[in-house]
Amino acid sequence: MYAGLAYVRPEKLDEALEFLEEHGGETAVVAGGTDVMVDLRSGALQTGYLLDVSRLSELKGIAMQGEELWVGAGTTLSEIYSSETLALFAPALQKAAFTFGSKQVRNTATIAGNVVNASPSADTMPPLLIHEARVVLASSNGVRTVPVEAMSTGPYKSAIHPDEVITRFILKPAKSMLADFQKIARRKALAISRMNMAVMAEKDETGKIMFMRLALGSSTPTPRRMEDVEAFLLGKRPDRALLWEAGQVLAEKMVEITGRRPSTGYKEKAAQGLFMRMLYPLV
Amino acid sequence: MLRIGAVERLKGEPIFSADLKLDHPLTLNVLRSSRAHARIVKIDINGALNVKGVVKVFTASDVPGNNLTGIINKDRPLLVSDKVRFVGDSIAFVAAENEEAAEKGVHAINVVYEDLPAVFDPEEALKDSAPKIHEKGNLLFSRKVKKGNIDKAFENCQAVVEKTYQTSCLEHTYLEPDAGAGYVDGDGTIVIFASTQNPHYDHSEVVSILGVEDEKVRIIQAATGGGFGSKLDLNVQGFIGLALYHLKRPVRYVYTREEAFLATAKRHPLTMIMKTGADRNGKLLAMRARIICDTGAYASYGIAVASRSAVHATGPYEVENVDIEAHCVYTNKPFSGAMRGFGAPQMAFANESQMDLLAKELSMDPFEIRRVNIFRQGSETATGQKLTESIGILECLDAIQPYYKGAVKKWRTSEASPFKRKGVGIGAMWYGIGNTGMRNPSTARVEMDPAGAVTLYTGCADIGQGSTTVLAQIVAETLCLEADAIQLVVGDTKYTTNAGATSASRQTYISGNAVKEAAEKLRELLMTGAVDVLKVGKGSLMLDSGFVADSNDNAKRVSFSKLAARAYKKGLPFVCQGYFDPETVPLDPETGQGVPYSTYAFACHLAFVTVDTMTGEVRVEKVVAAHDVGKAIYPEGVIGQICGGVAMGVGFALMEEFMHGQTESMKDYFIPTCKDMPEVIPIIVESREPTGPFGAKGVGEPALIPTAPAILNALNDALGERIYSLPANLERVLEASIRSGCFGPKEAKNV
Fold first, then answer.
1. Which of residues 719-738 of B touch A (CB under 8 A)?
2. CATH number of the structural domain spanning residue B688
3. Residues of chain B with pLDDT under 70
């Protein structure tokens, strides 16, 4: 079935990068394989080499590094699920792992795999966006860092170069009053998000919203921060009517970016509804 | 006791078709039509023959016998020769040394099509101007059930509700994709192992395709990972048989999940236009129903589905005046066939919605309106059948009512997040056991060898539902033995006799009776032999774990083995054949009057749902499921069926929808996961059926039928808005929430 496909598993990151320098154009990098193996079987992915990075220790680990929160590219969703560091400093990312795929998928799928696959509904993207994550990419020519929102250029189009691997994500840690991730799907597990959303928000002592970051997934060609909604709410005292209005702003922005599609009828309402549900604890 | 074979399954020991070790088997792969409706101008197989590893390419001209297949009416070619009728129709197949060559071979076949106008909507297909899919036209079958005078009766109604309901096309999504394998044995017999629900039907169909003697084909049911009705059709057996006939080399054919999705039967989508009227006490006076069953390109079990949907249209309620018509229509969609419930789940959704709507019109409690109309002893069904025994529906209703009262009083208004609403709903059902107004006998054989060992031979396919356990228990109970002492030969046409299909919830009742009759005959032989040996009259004899004993003097006893040995010596082997065919009266073609089934199972479910009014998400929290099964011979099996039925019902209600060309596999066709499962409280009601083995009826399909209606009624209870099309997915539930005014900045909590 996979005649002509070679499997390569380097021991060190440097070896992986060397291999990619030479064969990057004809290589698919595989970590958990939850997307790659499916595409390989269906024939959607045609490649000469599978480069397995799942055992590279350089890609592992979750830790605070000074003011930064480092999450290794090869961190599995199960590791995110049970990380105490993330529970403290990036709870929305951890919540994304609670509903991600199934336990079997979480045990093998990695955060970088989710980002590189560049699905509009990637569940780790909204949390990474609200933590203003930067992506560290390595190649034989060195290291570059790009903001996570620049990692996908369209649905399933990653900005990664053929000779690169992601080594880690650098997040801005934040402890806020409200930090949440929620998704809507057609069933309770093993389902691609119809819509997902991550939010962090904080009120000042007068009850006004003084800090807010919001990101929406599965609703625009690539997951996005929704700065218009953030700006709309900053400095205001949240009540039901205001949140409902902000949800309306979100829905309008979504339609403005994506245009009207058959799914829009549901999604513009659901965006407003999900937003209301998630932000309601601020009231 | 443990279910027979449970430990082996747990250890992975049973041999599924794909596991069979064969000597260098050939692999098959079928070329499926890429067109919905097209004349075949030419099939050029030369390209395939040039592929390395391809041994032969088969087309219709290779079929020596009858190319047409089908269990009720033969309209489906094994391999089409003139025209294709849906995307997925089988045109040719390749036998090759390996899977890769088989696949390459299929791609190298060149088919020249001439497209014909296609029709996908059953109502369009009924128009005179519609393209004809089959020679006889697009209307396959109609079932009419008529009684009394509905026009007059509707005039006397206080409340009349008229609504149109629509259900979706479903894929069965059994665990094991279709598979089979086979070889030609030393005496030239074609031996086929298959994942099947009906080995004896497979046998007759392969014999017909090959035009050979009955003895030349042997079908063995391999371990089977579920079927839900789809493995009643000939999916792989015909191709394997044809390849063995020509090539005399071992062959295997295992569908991918995608192929099982593309090429096997689906659940009939039904359109149901229902008009139901009641007087001011809630008594149903009249029902008019017009039902369209979309059977797709071929009939499969379409006639059975149309017939059963019409007969079951009233639900388990007395309605004196009915005018019901169900029409089964061909379209150029994938063919619909049998699926757990044969149209009854679809009808129950429509009918139970009507009951709640009438209750609302009349300001009645949903229990009360059901109680007023529910079948009781002496009730007459829409087909004019008088119900006399084993009518446990009221007991089922009574069993769930306390849960309903508790839910309304407490749970529905208990603490919930601000944008959620809760609802409870009832679904009731009846289900005729066995085929509709048709003969559907079963046979069985029970033997005792000269050493006293008992073997049951049954053609009844156990596909995971547990029939083998139940049948062994019946033999054991009749002969006063332990069930695990009974040796079993199951589903092998060389040794077993026809038990009919594992469908229509019929095996416990019908095969159970056949098995019981055979075992009773053996018991009688043992008794007669013991009279001789013990010099005691039969009336004083009893069976006691392997012995026949004098009930007055237990020391006076003779072992089964001694009795068997004596009999064999005399040339009287202990071989007993059993037979049972439920008594039915065929339905009149114009009025549908008759006795379609000799007994019915009944059930009521109560569903607890929480609805997110902001997003349309639904959580089914709990299902209380009361089932009248007559007698639960293997209660653990009944509970297993109930829980599995609820799972399937949750899928039918909320998420499942097969869309041709879009839902290709389990990646985009959603069935519930364990996280979607509610808590299930199974309640077994035993209203003894006098004609059943030890009073038993059946539960396989009934387990599923009330779940979706209960969930849909619960959604209406939560939102105050009703959904008329299944599935009640995110979009439809959110629309209902918006219509109800629950979607907005205000709290949506129940009050």
1. 729-731, 734, 738
2. 3.30.365.10
3. 751
